[in-house]
Design a protein that fits this description.
7-stranded mixed sheet; SDH-like; 11 helices; 6-stranded parallel sheet; 2 domains; Quinone Oxidoreductase, Chain A, domain 1
Length: 357
């Protein structure tokens, strides 16, 4: 009889988060691996599901294990798995397309209408000790990367994919503006630099976040004065970058930031909408249209984990300073309160899930 402890973090309903046992996974399927979870980061979406019980159309209707920023160790492999073996440490890509529809066949598996994504109803997440996952979506970690860094590959993959969509390239002399200095904004700024941007400027309303960005090597920062109009703020951006940005990575989800991006971006440039906006926003579409400013959305990522891992393992990006708080899974309730508290100073809160001997 399997006597393993599968302690898990489960959202039962709005503002009802529990640390409790969940069922152990069955034997992995032919193309699956069984994973012993090591580290899971808390994402803003995890907090939203806990606090609100839903995000847009995705509603917590029954108890659901949360979590999707994960690293783990392979403990069993399915009969047809060839890319991994027992003992491999992996960063876990949490969204798996059906791989049978035309969207998946065309390579856009992140846009699959039937994608299963950890921690988004009805799919249980990875904040548990043991679970199965598709081997194709487990990315082996090199020896010089920790499990904490491995768990950060999920949000870094968002940043990498945004930079790929923006067509940031080495030697292009591109100037990049990043709006929002939360975890994804910070990672987007770091990825833009690592992938070849000449200059990167990051904006936020939180001075401590900007000071943190400077410590991470993003030396051009602007503290947003909410009393300034869009044109005045745009002039600040142009002054610090030396010209209008060629590319904007909008990571705040704020309507005002999207309008700033459209207003200040160079004609013909790309604005990547990384942050999640409210369902309806008022933006200057006529300005974007007449100046051929390209508004490009992203849905999470595709084909981006390998590059994210390379950028960290090669030393081009150091993500370790972003990990400001670590907890054991038994302390998950405290960890979530820390992540949700804007005065805690948390950038990335991580939870260690492995059983202690």
């Amino acid at each position: 009889m399997d006597k393993r402890d599968n302690l898990s973090v489960v959202i039962h309903k709005k503002e009802d988060l529990r640390v409790e046992q969940s069922a152990l996974p069955s034997e992995p399927g032919p193309y699956e691996v069984q994973l012993a979870s090591n580290t899971v980061g808390i994402c803003g979406s995890d907090v939203h599901f806990w606090k609100d019980g839903c995000i847009d159309k995705w509603v917590i209707e029954s108890p659901l294990v949360t979590g999707h920023e994960s690293s783990a160790t392979v403990i069993k492999v399915g009969s047809h798995v060839k890319n991994l073996k027992v003992g491999d440490r992996v960063s876990v890509e949490p969204g798996v397309g059906c791989m049978a529809c035309q969207v998946c066949k065309d390579g856009f598996y992140n846009l699959c209408p039937d994608v299963l994504f950890f921690g988004v109803p009805p799919t249980g997440g990875s904040l548990r000790r043991y679970y199965n996952h598709s081997s194709a979506f487990c990315h082996k970690l090199p020896d010089n990367m920790s499990h904490g860094e491995g768990a950060l590959m999920e949000p870094l993959a968002v940043a990498v994919y945004a930079c790929k969509r923006a067509a940031i390239t080495e030697g292009s002399g591109q100037r990049v503006m990043v709006t929002g200095a939360g975890p994804v904004g910070l990672l987007s700024a770091l990825a833009a630099k690592a992938m070849g941007a000449q200059d990167v400027c990051i904006l936020d309303i939180n001075e401590s976040r900007l000071k943190f960005a400077q410590q991470m090597g993003i030396d051009k920062t602007i503290l947003i004065d909410t009393k300034l109009d869009t044109e005045s703020l745009a002039n600040e951006v142009i002054a610090i970058l030396g010209d209008s940005p060629d590319i904007t990575l909008e990571c705040s989800g704020a309507e005002s930031s999207l309008n700033l991006a459209i207003f200040v971006n160079k004609d013909g440039g790309n604005v990547i909408m990384v942050g999640i906006n409210p369902r309806k926003v008022s933006v200057s579409l006529s300005s974007a249209a007449c100046r051929e400013v390209n508004l490009l959305g992203i849905k999470r990522y595709r084909h981006s984990f390998p590059l994210a891992i390379y950028l960290v393992s090669s030393g081009k990006i150091d993500v370790k300073p972003l990990i400001t708080h670590k907890y054991r899974i038994e302390e998950a309730l405290e960890a979530f309160h820390t992540a949700a508290n804007p005065t805690s100073g948390a950038i990335k809160v991580q939870i260690e899930c492995f059983e202690q001997s």
